[in-house]
Amino acid sequence: MKKLRKNPERQTNLQNSFLDGDITSSDYNEMKSRIESELSDKQVKLERLKSTKSPFKVYLNKTLPMIENLSHYWDKADGKTKKKILGCIFTEKFENFDFESCNNIFTPEIKSIMLASKVLKSN
């Protein structure tokens, strides 16, 4: 971003050098073309970065709403889907569901949510 802001300053300095007679018109045109090319490349890179979705943005936009409505999805799901949901919550398969004994087999994502929930409740 700094480099992107620096180019207009470079263009002004280049114009001043040309007007002061410090550089020739061919030098001016050559440097102007280089600066404009660099500016164009940087703007393209910036636009690509802006349009790229980070995994965190995808998580916030898709996963969290699903988690918020998990009971709704669970109620409407078939057995296969329920197994997939459980696979996203727990790292291991289990036979008898005992919530207390399952505390250590949550996926890292679910552990993070539980930790965040505890922190928010304590505040």
List descriptors.
mainly alpha, 123 residues, rod-shaped, 75% helix, 6 helices
What topology emerges from the helices and strands here?
Layout: H1 2-19, H2 25-51, H3 55-68, H4 70-76, H5 79-89, H6 108-122
Helix pairs in contact: 1-2
Could you characterize the architecture of this molecule?
The two termini are 37 Å apart. With 123 residues, the chain is mainly α. 75% of the residues lie in helices and 0% in strands. The longest helix has 27 residues. It is rod-shaped and about 80 Å long.
Average pLDDT taken over every residue: 78
**Secondary structural class:** mainly alpha
- Number of continuous helical runs: 6
- What does the radius of gyration come to? 28 Å
Summarize, please:
With 123 residues, the chain is mostly helical. Helix content is 75%, strand content 0%.
